[in-house]
Design brief:
- The protein has 260 residues and is of the alpha/beta class.
- It has 11 helices and 9 strands.
- The strands form 2 sheets. A 7-stranded mixed beta sheet has the order 3-2-1-4-5-9-6, sandwiched between helices. A two-stranded antiparallel ribbon has the order 7-8.
- The two termini are 27 Å apart.
- Bound molecules: benzoic acid.
- The site of benzoic acid (BEZ) has 8 residues, from loops.
- The site of benzoic acid has 8 residues, from loops.
C-alpha cells in the first residue's frame, strides 16, 4: 500500500495502547530484535533517538550499549512504563518530529507501520539527524499479516460492515521505501524484506483484541464472540498448528540509510 492510500484508509483506526495489555499480548514486538540492533551498532557516547520507543524495553538495551538515548512515543501509557525504567523519553507524534540536527542515529523498531504519513516521518527523521547520521529501522513490510487482513476484510464484507477497518497500516515494498528515503536526503545502505513468522502467545484472540479493537467496534458487544469464532475458523488452516498454537504471518522491512 502506498503512503497515500494508507492515509486514506486509516481515518477510523486510531490505536490506543495500554501498558499491561501490551506486556501480555505484544511483548514479542521487542523480542526478536538482535538483527536490527546489530544493524544500528550503537556506540558509547553517541546520541540516539528511539522513535516509537513503546515501554522502553529495547531503548534500555541501547542505553546499556553506552549510547545517550532519547525515546519518543505517542502513548502516555507506554511512556509511563518507560519512565519507570529510568529512561529519558518524551511524548512526540512521529509524523511531526520537531528535533533539529542533534542525533547521531535514529532507530525504530515495530513502530513505523503505525505512522501512515510516511513522508512526514522521513522528513522529521532527516531533520533530526546530523549530516552523516544513521537511520536504522525495522517495521511491517509489503505483505505483512496478509492472511489476517484478508480474513478480517472477508468477514466484514460478509456482515455488511466496513472492510477498511481491517487495515490501515503502512507496509511499503523496499522499492517504495528506498524511493521515499532517496527523495528526502538519504543514501540507502541496505534494505530488504523478509518473512518473520511470529508466535502469538495469547492466540489470535489476544492479538486481535490488542491491535484491532476498532474493527470489532463495528458490532455490538454480544455479537463479537461470533465474529471472533468466524475469524478463527477462517485462519486456523493457515496460522494454527496441530497443537493449537497460533503464528502470525509477519513480514518485516529492515533498512539502514545515511543522511547525506
Ligand atoms: C506488526 O508488528 O507488524 C504489527 C503489529 C500489530 C498490528 C499490525 C502489525
Amino acid at each position: 500500500m502506498t503512503a497515500k492510500a494508507a492515509n486514506a484508509s486509516n481515518a477510523a483506526l486510531k490505536q490506543v495502547w495500554g501498558a499491561e495489555n501490551y506486556e501480555k499480548n505484544a511483548r514479542f514486538v521487542s523480542d526478536m530484535t538482535s538483527e536490527v540492533v546489530a544493524w544500528l551498532a550503537p556506540r558509547a557516547g553517541e546520541r540516539i533517538l528511539d522513535l516509537g520507543c513503546g515501554d522502553g524495553v529495547l531503548t534500555e538495551k541501547l542505553v546499556q550499549a553506552g549510547a545517550i538515548v532519547t525515546g519518543a512515543d505517542n502513548s502516555e501509557a507506554l511512556l509511563a512504563a518507560a519512565r519507570k525504567r529510568g529512561l529519558d523519553v518524551e511524548f512526540k507524534d512521529g509524523q511531526a518530529l520537531d528535533y533539529g540536527p542533534e542525533f547521531d542515529a535514529v532507530f525504530s523498531n515495530a513502530a513505523l507501520h503505525w505512522m501512515t504519513r510516511a513522508e512526514d516521518v522521513v522528513k522529521g527523521v532527516a531533520r533530526a539527524l546530523k549530516p552523516g547520521g544513521r537511520f536504522v529501522a525495522e517495521f511491517g513490510g509489503h505483505g505483512n499479516i496478509a492472511a489476517i487482513v484478508t480474513a478480517l476484510r472477508a468477514v466484514a464484507v460478509a456482515h455488511g460492515k466496513d472492510p477498511a477497518r481491517a487495515a490501515g497500516w503502512f507496509y511499503p515494498t523496499p522499492a517504495e521505501y528506498r524511493a521515499l528515503l532517496e527523495a528526502n536526503g538519504f543514501l540507502v545502505d541496505r534494505i530488504g524484506l523478509f518473512p518473520r513468522p511470529t508466535p502469538l502467545p495469547t492466540g489470535l484472540r489476544g492479538w486481535l483484541s490488542t491491535f484491532r479493537e476498532s474493527y470489532f467496534e463495528q458490532w455490538p458487544e454480544r455479537k463479537r464472540p461470533e465474529i471472533l469464532a468466524e475469524l478463527e475458523a477462517l485462519l486456523a488452516p493457515a496460522l494454527r498448528d496441530q497443537t493449537g498454537n497460533w503464528t502470525a504471518d509477519y513480514v518485516r522491512l529492515r533498512v539502514a540509510a545515511t543522511r547525506s
